[in-house]
Design goal:
By secondary structure, the protein is mainly alpha-helical. The chain has helices at residues 5-12, 31-39, 45-71, 75-88, and strands at residues 13-16, 19-22. Helix 2 runs antiparallel to helix 3. The protein is elongated. The mean pLDDT is 92.
Length: 104
């Protein structure tokens, strides 16, 4: 399947002020996609910068929210998650949650 940058830009994005976002999930597209939009002249350098900065801020916020949610799990939720991770990654000796440092 060929990735059509112009089609993706025209049919799958919208602007929230100067920040480009995916219609499907309201998130800022990945850095490489935003770079392609810029290189093809679909967005300005300023819009690219806004997109990159907004993505970084929103990602940091998401990670903090995730860490809080992980810290507030019940013992049963923790055990269920550990069991699922061990089942999915049985070949790994010690899987680690890269955001919380929790080992499974």
């Amino acid at each position: 399947m060929t990735y059509n940058t112009q089609e993706k830009f025209e049919t799958n994005t919208y602007f929230d002020g100067d920040v480009i976002r995916w219609i499907s999930n309201n998130s800022v597209p990945p850095k490489d996609i935003v770079e392609q939009f810029f290189e093809n002249g679909f967005i300005t350098a300023e819009q690219k910068e806004y997109a990159d900065n907004t993505r970084d801020i929103e990602t940091a916020q998401f990670i903090e929210e995730y860490k809080k949610a992980q810290a507030n799990r019940t013992p049963a939720q923790i055990e269920a998650e550990k069991a699922a991770v061990r089942e999915a990654f049985y070949s790994w000796e010690n899987p680690i949650n890269i955001f919380t440092g929790e080992t499974y």
